[in-house]
Structures are given as structure tokens and as C-alpha cells.
Structure prediction request, 261 residues.
Amino acid sequence: MKKQLIRTASRMAISAIALSIGAKSLNMGLEAALMRLTDNSSRYEEVQKQKRPSPERYAEYPNPVYAKDDNFASDSETMVLARAICGEGRGELDNAGYINGILDSIFTRAKKRGVSIKDVLLETRLNKNGRIVYHYTTFDPRDVNYRKIKDPINNGDAETLAERIEIWKRCYDIARKAIEDKNNGKLPLKEITNYMVVRGNPFNHRTKREAKKYGIPSWAYEMENGRFILDKSGKRIPRKPVDIVFIEKDKHAYFYNFRNF
Prediction:
């Protein structure tokens, strides 16, 4: 009986010690959790600050947010060109061949038609179904890029605000320099009027089915009186591009110079 009482007392003592250690561990755990929570809260606030647009961080550049729905009528020529670069080539800003090709098509069209760069970029027409068609589709409200060019700082592709601001700055700088070079007669042109970016190759994919599969437009092939000119094998004959620029594996930009565009 005495031994049993001793064992019971020992268990109670051990339990008390365990409870004491557990309480201390719990307190330490709560303190650590509280410290982590406080730390995370501070980090969260810092991240939120980074996400919020900070006008002073791009104060030397015009604010690109466009709230109206008037086809960018209030924009300057430089601003509209910067939006075009942002919409058509923001992911290829280091690809000089591609960016220069885009600029070439815009300036060549403006030169041949005797209109401003802004007019060329915002040009629309009606197709045979009476639907409005934008030559530079990035300005089409139905296009996936439209939301991004209206507010590139908040709706851009990059994850952080700093990256989106940097992309917009580069687009604006490219536009500004291109217009300055044009005005100073320092902008050489290859007379590009049309371009496409596709994974297909018009020299290899020359049937109707292949062209549709790879998104190759009809104007990439020779035509006469509205019909495709076919070779002896019955396949379409591709038009010769002015330039071909590599984008990524199996994806290229093809640039053309057409008399009628």
C-alpha cells in the first residue's frame, strides 16, 4: 500500500513538472507566434505599400492612366505610341529587331498616307459585316491588351509595381526617342507596312488547313483578284517578307512591305 502511494505521488509530481514545462512551452510558443504575427503584419504593410501606385516614383513621366472611352483622343502622339509599344511589344523590349519592326510599320504607314502617327495607330474601318476593325488590335476594346494599355501601371503583366513602372518607362522612352529621331531625320525605315507574330511558318504551312491551324493571315500568301495563287502542287505561294525576327522557339515575327495595305 505504501509503495502504491509512493508511485502515485511520483506520477503526480511528474505530471506537475510536465504541466509546468508545457505551460512554459505554450507561453514561449504564443510569444513566438505573436512575434511572427507582428513581423508578418509589418511585412504585409510593406508589401501593400509596394503594391500601391506611388506617383512620385514615375513623376517624370506622364501618368498613363486613361479613364475615358473616347479612343484615346486626349492623348499626345508620344503617349499613344508608348501605349502601342506597351500593347504590341512589352514582353520583347530587349528584342531590338522586333521593336524596330513595329515602329517601322507605324512610321511607314503614317508617311505613305500623309497622316500623323496617332491617326495611324487609332485608325479603324468597317469590315464587310459592318464590324469595326482596328489595324493595331491592341487599341480594340475587345482585345486582351486594351485594359493593360489604358492603365499599364496597375494592369500590366509584371508581378510588382516597380517592374510595371519600369516597363512603362521603357515603352515611353522608346516612343519619345523614335519620334525625336523621326523629326531629326535619323529614323531609317525598311518601309514595313504589315507584320504578324505566329508559331507557324508561311513557307512550310501553305494549305488552308495549315494556315488556319497556325493563325497565318491570308495576306501572307500571294493573291490575284481575291484568290490565292497556287503552285503546281496546289499549295499557296508565300509572300517574301522584308525581315523575319526570332521571338522564341517555333515563334517568329514576319515583316512585310505591301503597296496596298
